Amino acid sequence: MAKFMNGQLLKRLNLLQSFILLCVLTLMAVLGVITLEFAWAESLRKRFGDADWVLTSLVAAVLLTVTAGIVTMAVLFYRWKLQRPLEILKQASENISANDLSFPISYDSRDEMGELIAVFENMREQLERNMKTLWRSVEERKQLNAIFAHDLRTPLSVLKGYAEFLATYLPEKKLSDEKVLDLIHTMNLHILRLESYAEAMASIQKLEDVPVNRRPTETTTLTALLNDSAEQLTRQFGKRFVSSMEGASIEINVDTYIVMQVFENLVANGVRYAVSQVNVRYVIQDGALHITVTDDGPGFSDEALRKAVLPFYRGEMWDANEHHGLGLYICKVLCEKHEGGLRIENHPHGGGSVSASFGMELIKS
């Protein structure tokens, strides 16, 4: 009977069908035992006569058999149909209470308990997906806040450099009115950029949501603005800055703020590694604006070449306590948003080289 009950039959029956089957089997077994008890009582009567204790023994044996049958049926029903699924649900509940949702639960039966466990598993999977989504959202927001703080540092450093420059030379009357107005105009562009960046960061949930707003601009105007920022950054660290532009000035359609953000990150990264000089080369080729920043430092290690664009990778930085390892990762994401890319390598003559490309449109005159 046990071998039969442990087979596939009970797994295909629902609880009611299983209960009825156990009742029928138990009833058959009880009736069989009672039949044997009556035969036993008859043999006692023939041997000892119509003694009262024979009838009493028979009644007691029948009652005991019926009770044992009911208890046995209940135990078997619990053991074969309820015990394992209840243990599975209990363990699953304990895991969920401990914030552990990484466990699968299954029960190979087609009865109501199997359906209940299947529903419970669906609930667990949904909870796990919701928790992963929530944690991913929290991590992306934390990362975005870190990126925001990191990227504010560079334009603020540029503005600080302009302010110090004006404070140093303006009282001595060494600056013409035209130069002062030019510096104020450039500083205003950086302030507008910071305002735009702050508004964008307040409205997005992750870096990939940064909008790309292309506007027409002359390459000479753009490169002059970029070179001015780079000179301010390199001057603060006592380094030289050299730039070159291939080709004549043309009008292109790019997001100036994104280009500046990537450019300043690359220059700031080059300044940290450079011994004395940072070089920038501008090229317009294959429908893209290419900006290559090189330095005369030790270059990238093999590990850095593989991991430099990963978020929060720092490497062995002299200012590791201040640098969050986000600069090149930011550049990579923003370049890709602008239909371009980022390439990191070592220059043939020594030093690191990082090339950023931005997809653009030429504006025909």
UniProtKB/TrEMBL annotation:
Residues passing through the membrane, by range: 20-41, 53-78
InterPro entries documented for this protein: HAMP_dom, HATPase_C_sf, HATPase_dom, His_kinase_dom, HisK_dim/P_dom, HisK_dim/P_sf, HssS/ArlS-like
First and last residue of the signal peptide: none
UniProt KW keywords: ATP-binding, Cell membrane, Kinase, Membrane, Nucleotide-binding, Phosphoprotein, Transferase, Transmembrane, Transmembrane helix, Two-component regulatory system
EC primary class: transferase
Cellular component, GO, one term: plasma membrane
Name the record gives this protein: histidine kinase
Natural source organism: Paenibacillus methanolicus
